[in-house]
Each structure stands twice: as structure tokens, then as C-alpha cells.
Amino acid sequence: MGYVGAHGVAALHRYKYSGVDHSYAAKYILQPFWSRFVNFFPLWMPCANFFPSLVNMRVWNLDSGLFFSPNMITLTGFMFLVTSALLGVIYSPQLDSPPPWWVHFAHGLLLFLYQTFDAVDGKQARRTNSSSPLGELFDHGCDALACAFESIAFGSTAMCGRDTFWFWVISAVPFYGATWEHYFTNTLILPAINGPTEGLMLIYVVHFFTAIVGAEWWAQQFGKSVPFLSWVPFFNGRTIFMLMTPNILLNKSYEIFYLNLLLVILQVFNFSVFSPLCVHNVYKVVQARKGSMLLALAMLYPFAVLLGGVLTWDYLSPSDIIANYPHLIVVGTGLAFGFLVGRLILAHLCDEPKGLKTGMCMSLLYLPFAIANALTARLNDGVPLVDESVVVLGFCVFTVALYLHFATSVIHEITTALGIYCFRASEERWSFSGQAKNDDSCDLIR
Length: 446
Hints:
By secondary structure, the protein is an all-alpha fold. Helices cover 61% and strands 2% of the residues. The chain crosses the membrane at residues 40-60, 72-93, 99-117, 164-180, 200-219, 231-250, 256-279, 291-313, 325-346, 358-377, 389-406.
């Protein structure tokens, strides 16, 4: 199945990225650091002797040497988060028990490295004159998957258990909204306070803090964790985690008073501030083009169905799948989300919106089967037709296979169309510019 048509190939050759980052933390603190850090990456290194089996392959073409490409930096940064998530699952299988202190420290360090590598890949592209539409798709695609893997890492640090899923939601909602907005406005605008900068900084500070005080800090009574607030009646007898858990929704205990204050605040911000702002910006563009706002809003439908489908499956599940398999649910849903984001970005790069919404819905095909299987438990004394552990594992296998097919196919089609390589620059495009500029442009995407 081809993902890029003839019109898309022509659009790829014309495409120019536009983005800006208004973050003060990035401008005055991180940008100077990133501009120096990128110089640690080599522009070129000989490697035909090390990878002879990959010589002349379209992905590498290592007959003369390996260009340390931006995509290689992006992939390396993404693998830091995969490693972090694996550590979380190994030492806290259901993300509800405290891992060793060094795991929290590793989570923080790996997230910091991910943020750094994710920022300097754009600078490396400018150093070597190797910017391309593939770089944007590769970068943003890894970022979409990163939402899931970092949610797992944070879930193990704060012992969130089933509520790890909600931390994925609060990262996925603004991410999808920003991608949807970028599709129409053609410019990715990061506000003064944004997730890729301040959001990640806050999270790795939490990881480092937990390495010092221990994960039990989140579970002990609030008066012991924060003694100077122990006199406040609302906090008396509650734990930090009780004040950070959205039990009002789909939690079998329905302990409304243990509402997760942090998640509620973030979700309110998402739906009352960020989401209306995205909709308003898209509305202005659609009106200027005399288009249909209903068709624009329809692009939100696949994500809404994905989120609603997983929550419906969990509600009907006799085995509480999000509580018993939080890592598998987050990974499976995260990969399906990555497919949605990838299709949306590809349609933007190729200017090919036709069939976009139906194509995106391919990642949702497994959910009706999972929901129907959960419903059979209502007719069979609480026992589903297929064991839900198998169904959850099948969900992950399905989304992994779908995403890998999409990623490998699109990389092959774009590299062939543009005459480039994924992890190496074409000889005629090499242009070593030395030191990277310290600018305010968005370095998350090339």
C-alpha cells in the first residue's frame, strides 16, 4: 500500500518548514546550551569497515562513510525514552510499586538527554544542510511515541498504576491539537510555556526529586510529606498521590474526594485554554480559505474515537485492563496515536488530504473486537470469550505491526522520491557550516 502519491512527491520537493518557539526558558537557558552541545556530534565518520553488510542500502549507503545525520540523533534520543520505560516496567511491573532510587535518577537523566537530542537534531540539520520533510516527519513521529514511553516512566516514579493512562492523555491531547493546528496554519507555534520545554523540565525535576526523597513520598500522608501544610483540613489524612489521582472517572472505587488535583488542573487547561485556542486559530484559517469548519473538526474524530474506545473497553472489562496491564495499554494506545499523528503530518507534507480520515482510522480497527469481547463477559458470568490478557497483547501486536509498516513504507517512499537517505546525507547536499547558530527557531522539527 503506497502512502505518497504523485502529487505528494511534487509537494515534498516544494515543502518548507515554518515554526517558532516563544519559550523564555528555551531562549535564555536551553538554546545556548543546545548550540554548544550540537558541536559534540561529528559531521562525518568512516564506517564502511564497521557495517559492511549495510553498504549500498538506501537507508545507509555506507560505502564511503556515515554522516551523523539529524535522524540518527532523533532516533538515539527516542531510544533513551524506550530504555527509561523498560526500566520502569522491569522494576515496577504494574507501575504501582517503588523502584530503586537509581531508577528515578535514570528516568530524569534519560528524559533530559531525550529533550537535548530532540532539540539539537534541527541544529545538526542546519550545520550540514540536510534539512528535509523526512526530518520533520521522523522527529514529530518519535515525539508522538515519546508521549507513551515517558508516561510509563513517570508512572513508575509516582507509582501511578492505572492512572498512568491519564498522564498519557494530558500529553497526547495538546500534542494532537498542535499537530492539527499546524496542518491548517502551516506554522508550528510553541507558546511561552509549552510541553516540549517547560513540561519536560518539570517532569525530569520530579524524577530527580523522587530519587532523593524516595517513591514512598508520593504515598505517605500529606502532613508527613509537606509538614507545613498539615494543618489544612482538606489535606489532613490524604496522601500526595490521593491528591493526584483522577478517581472520578472510570475508577471502580469512585473516591471523588481523592481527585487528582494536578491532572484536573492540566486537563482543565487543555480543554479550556489550549484546545479553544487551537480551534480558534484553525477557524480563522478555514474562514479565510472559505472552507468547511466541520470538515476540519472531522480530523479530530479519529483521536476522539481512539480515546473513547479504549476507555469504553476498560469500563466494560471484567479484569480492569488499565489497572492490570497499564504499560501494555499505554504502549498500544500510544502506537495507535503515533499512527494518527504520522498520517496527519504526512498529509500536510504531501498536500494530500483526500482519504486522510479513513486512512487514519486503520489504527482503530482492533477496538471493536476488544469491546465486543469484553461484552461477552456480561453474557458468560463475567468470563470473556477470549482471555483479556491475550486481547491486550494482541492490541499491542496489532499497533506495533501497523506502525512499523507505516514508518518503513513512508521512509522508503520519501527517500526514493527526494533522492536522499534516512541516516546519511547525499554527497551533493553536504555543506559543513561549522558552529550552530543560537536562534529562537523551533529546533524540535526541521
